[in-house]
Amino acid sequence: MSERVQLIMLPGPTMVPPRVLRAMAKPIINHRGPEFKELYLGVIEKSKKVFMTKGDLFILSCSGTGGVECAISNAIGPGEKVIIPVNGVFSQRVKRTVEIFGGKPVEIPVEWGSSVTVDAVEDAIKKEPDAKALAIVYNETSTGAKVKCMAELGELCDEKGLLYIVDAISILGGDELPVDDWKVDICITGSQKCLMSPPGLALLSISEKAWSAIERTNRAVYFDLKAYRDYLKEGETPFTPAIPLFYALDEALDMILEEGMEARIERHRRCANAIYKALEAIGLEMFAKEEFRSNTVIGVRDPKGIDGNMIRRIMREKYNVVIAGGMGKLKGTMFRIGSMGNVSMADILITISALEGALQELGYEFDRGAGVVAANEAFKS
Ligand SMILES: Cc1ncc(COP(=O)(O)O)c(C=O)c1O
């Protein structure tokens, strides 16, 4: 296999900065000793700053899906109703998780490429006044559409006594999400996306209200949050943690806090804007409706008569740039560009240039160079 470093523009995993990669090369330590305690407690404190929460926070050695499974299995009791807006593959997965753990999903069907409105959730609560929770995917990675009313939904859940569970796996650290201000009870993310760390860790914040739900259940072993809480008193995790990934996340969090959350969110916004401007200049059509466009995942319809798999293949083989295809029912109809984590202007100009090269080779008619010019202009403004 080639040792050449590819430019990974996926909606996760994302490019890991060399400083973060180097941090993983430190020696393995005793996970029941003082060195890990210092590392773990430090990572938790830094993560709380990124989540903007004063509540509890845990780091699990698993990918994001494990974090979602942990939230649902701990907080939702058998037969309890959970309202779930479904507008893509990841919200379908949340629904399935609720079902498998014995909860009763109440689906709000939402057109893919759009996101749920406050009115739709209010209606659902009126119809199901005994619903226990709202579980929502903030940024639907399969389409590139984000929810625009997260703060309002937090207020609504607070007022109606619902738990507010948020899958923020492809957005936390790259867009606004002040967990306490938005009254999020359980917020989940993964290490490999906006947090620019390698895959393998899930982070979960837990509010006081969430704890009262969790106290009643007893359905998890590996993901037992009460065990995580008990072990945290000693600065430990219940099971052997992925120590090198904790080193990496610790370094990445230092970089994130050095940049500052406001500057970081603004960089993500500028990068996404440049990509959208470039794609429009090339004449491509975004999958998400304009008002719901994500600042971290850009979903693009394959141009008519052009095979999206070939676009991605040429970009990878000729230009060393890796982007993602469609998922679920959208497979073979679109491609997705991740604009997350350590993403920069240079990464975007290279990606757009590679995309233009691939499109030209496949016979798509457009003004070659228009995308790169548009992206450049967007960065200047
Ligand atoms: C919104 C969302 N939820 C869940 C997941 C699953 O995360 P993982 O692949 O880390 O398990 C992803 C991954 O892309 C995601 O984007």
Describe the structure.
- The chain is of the alpha/beta class and 381 residues long.
- It has two domains: 127 residues, Aspartate Aminotransferase, domain 1 (Alpha-Beta Complex), CATH 3.90.1150.10; 241 residues, 3-Layer(aba) Sandwich (Aspartate Aminotransferase, domain 2).
- The protein has 13 helices and 14 strands.
- Strand 13 and strand 14 form a beta hairpin.
- The radius of gyration is 21 Å and the shape is globular.
- The site of pyridoxal-5'-phosphate (PLP) has 12 residues, from helix 3.
Keyword list:
single chain, 381 residues, alpha/beta, Aspartate Aminotransferase, domain 1, Aspartate Aminotransferase, domain 2, 2 domains, seven-stranded mixed sheet, three-stranded antiparallel sheet, 14 strands, globular, binds pyridoxal-5'-phosphate
Short description:
The chain has 381 residues and is an alpha/beta fold.
Q: What is the helix fraction of residues, given as a range?
A: 40-55%
The spatial strand order of the largest sheet comes to 2-10-9-8-5-3-4
The N- and C-terminal alpha carbons lie at a distance of 41 Å
- Stated plainly, the CATH topology of the largest domain is called Aspartate Aminotransferase, domain 2
Given this structure, which CATH class of the largest domain is correct? Alpha Beta
Ligands present: pyridoxal-5'-phosphate
Task: Please give the CATH architecture of the largest domain.
Answer: 3-Layer(aba) Sandwich
How many β-strands, per DSSP?
A: 14
DSSP summary: helix tally = 13
User: Could you tell me the strand content as a percent range?
Assistant: 5-15%
* Gyration radius, rounded: 21 Å
